[in-house]
Amino acid sequence: MIKVSNLDHFVLTISDIDKTVAFYADILEFDVVRFGENRTALVFGKSKINLHLQGKEIAPHAKNPTLGSADLCFIVENPLTEVVEHLQKHHIPVESGIVPRTGACGPIESLYLRDPDGNLIELSRYL
């Protein structure tokens, strides 16, 4: 029997390393890690996002790596009103929110924005 305990990493196919790193590091305050042969990852909590440049994906990779196809939810510790203020200071539009949702561990409140490749980013806080 297999019992999965947590998510270690996932891969985003992106169009521009610098724009992606700027968004996730400067706006969402993820740590940037360089590894291997010119690889880049974004670290948050106990997980990371490996970045694959479109057309230069690292094998093995998704069958159809596509820009803007991800819909991701990240849990934040700050009140979402503070998150909105932070996003406004950086001229990042909020697409929708603050709205009630259901997270993996119970009720959350969420807001939505997009990264440079159009991936939907949900920032949520448990109630």
UniProtKB/TrEMBL annotation:
What GO MF terms are annotated? dioxygenase activity; lyase activity
Q: Which UniProt keywords apply?
A: Dioxygenase, Lyase, Oxidoreductase
Q: Does the keyword Oxidoreductase apply?
A: yes
Q: Which InterPro entries match?
A: Glyas_Bleomycin-R_OHBP_Dase (IPR029068), Glyas_Fos-R_dOase_dom (IPR004360), GlyoxalaseI/FosfomycinResist (IPR050383), VOC_core (IPR037523)
A Pfam match: Glyoxalase
Domain VOC: where? 6-126
Q: PANTHER family, per this entry? A: GLYOXALASE DOMAIN-CONTAINING PROTEIN 5, GLYOXALASE FAMILY PROTEIN
Q: What is this protein called?
A: Catechol 2,3-dioxygenase-like lactoylglutathione lyase family enzyme
Instruction: Please give the organism.
Output: Alitibacter langaaensis DSM 22999
